[in-house]
Please model this.
Amino acid sequence: MDLQTDYFRAADEAAVRKVMTSGERPAAEVFESVRARGIDPTVVLPRLVSALREEDAPAPAEDGPDRSVWPTGLQPWHEEAPATAVDFEDPWMTGPWVVELSDETRDALAGVQRKRLPQLTSQWARTEEVKSVERIELMKLIHQLGVLARRAKQDGQHLYCVLTA
Model:
């Protein structure tokens, strides 16, 4: 499955859920966002964050997003979910899915410096999932994510990722 990933900033989970519930427009159109095709928040983005932190701080990057924001309700694979046949129309199966990134991830991305872009791009380009992406595209994406994260941090907002199948 090829996932479309869009990172965006929003005030809080309630604002995100309001947009997702209305279904009128995608979250990436409502909020300031960055399209990052295939850069998932659980594997690929943490590798960039690790590269950012290597020089800035010795703390390891967190593994993926803090929590799911959308859809709401019990996930069908949760141990407390009723043992029924899988409903392939269930929003948990069809998406879109929204996760909130940790503020630590936001802050690490907000620290992207233009002078470090070539080095970060080279480090991140070694990640298996992005090896086929042109380096100039990776560099642009790192810069765009940094700008988005800085604006979110300045405005007291959080970063989210919407994944669409």
About this structure: Residues 66 and 102 are 6 Å apart (CA to CA). Confidence is low (pLDDT under 50) at residues 56-65. The beta strands are 4-10, 33-35, 67-70, 97-100, 158-164. The chain is about 40% helix and 15% strand.
